[in-house]
Write a structure and sequence with these properties.
Blueprint: E1 2-14, E2 25-41, E3 45-50, E4 53-58, H1 71-84, E5 89-96, H2 106-120, H3 127-138, H4 148-155, E6 158-162, E7 166-170, E8 177-182, H5 189-202, H6 204-227, H7 230-246, H8 252-264, E9 267-271, E10 278-283, H9 288-297, E11 301-305, E12 313-314
Parallel strand pairs: 3-5
Antiparallel strand pairs: 1-2, 1-12, 2-5, 2-6, 3-4, 6-7, 8-10, 8-11, 9-10
This protein binds (3R)-3-hydroxy-3-methyl-5-(phosphonooxy)pentanoic acid (PMV).
């Protein structure tokens, strides 16, 4: 029997980096998905096929022995086989509409879709159970994950997250389009987060003032989301990007992209760790096409996305 599940990617609308120091962040699922197909096979192996490589290994290996980005898939398959039926192996195929490793939630979407698809070979489990397994799997590559990314990929829509209170889904349904552009510069979230830590340690007072301002800005964004005030959300994005510039996570290429995006949209900013990865511009029907054309004219890889309200889907 074949079991299939898909989960959306995400952007961080507001609050990356400051969230590490207690500020609230707002995340949003996007309608670009990762689909995982899982199937029982008679051999004693776990086999994974994906755009970022393939892996074929015996079952029952210690997870410490598995290197690379496909580790969460192995972890899930091995764990789920052990729970339900030791007599089989598993064939897993991953198809992605999301560029991988650029801060668009590909690893969380993989963990969520894989946890549902692999479990689904044996039994359909609830979204809460899928989420719990997905976070466990993601921790095999990002031990400090807050679980916020997996949560928004599972439930879809817009979500607020802060360290103290955890996640809460927001019921706002603003009507915007995002134009997402890829700098094609690889980044390591871990390295950029540690760079920001150094900045903070050298500029304690300034950083704490910025956290306060970011927090006020996000309070304002909450009202804007409720009222679908895209112009004001855009202005807040521009302001948020200035803070991200100040803490040193931008570079010339990202600055050029932001400048271009601000000319043709309501506002734009980096999403995620920065140092590379993606930026996104906020648009509606009236300016989306033009923003995309301008990026394409300047040879940037870009695509449009809407909010995904569905989250995890199983077939
Ligand atoms: O690169 P991403 O999209 O996984 O985002 C990292 C977000 C940070 O705030 C920079 C780090 C974190 O753990 O919250």
């Amino acid at each position: 029997m074949t079991s299939k599940a898909s989960a959306p990617g995400k952007v961080i609308l507001f609050g990356e980096h400051f969230v590490v120091y207690g500020v609230k962040a707002i995340l949003c699922a996007i309608d670009k998905r990762i689909t995982v197909t899982a199937e029982k096979i008679p051999d004693d192996i776990i086999s994974i096929k994906s755009d970022i490589g393939n892996l074929q290994l015996q079952k029952n290996k210690s997870i410490d022995k598995i290197d690379g980005p496909l580790r969460p898939f192995y972890y899930l398959a091995d764990k789920i086989i052990k729970k339900y039926d030791q007599n089989f192996g598993m064939q897993i195929t991953v198809d992605s509409e999301i560029p991988l490793g650029v801060g668009l939630g590909s690893s969380s979407a993989c963990c969520v879709a894989a946890s549902a698809a692999i479990s689904g070979v044996f039994e359909k489990i609830s979204k809460d159970e899928v989420l719990q397994l997905a976070i466990e799997a993601e921790k095999t590559i990002f031990p400090n994950t807050s679980g916020a990314d997996c949560t928004v990929c599972t439930f879809g829509g817009i979500m607020q997250y802060d360290k103290q209170n955890g996640h809460e889904k927001l019921e706002y349904k603003p009507n915007f389009h995002l134009v997402i552009a890829n700098s094609k510069i690889e980044h390591s979230t871990k390295q950029v987060v540690s760079k920001v830590k150094q900045f903070k340690e050298k500029n304690e007072e300034r950083f704490s003032q910025m956290c306060k301002e970011e927090s006020d800005l996000i309070d304002d964004v909450m009202n804007c989301l409720e009222n679908n005030d895209l112009k004001r959300i855009g202005l807040n994005m521009i302001k948020n990007q200035e803070y991200l510039e100040s803490i040193g996570i931008s570079n010339d290429r990202l600055r050029d992209m932001i400048k271009l995006a601000n000319e043709y949209s309501f506002g734009s900013k980096i999403t995620g760790a920065g140092g590379g990865g993606c930026i996104f511009a906020l648009t509606d029907q009236s300016n989306m096409e033009n923003a995309i054309n301008q990026f394409k004219k300047n040879n940037y890889e870009c695509f449009s996305a809407k909010i995904d309200f569905k989250g995890l889907d199983t077939f």
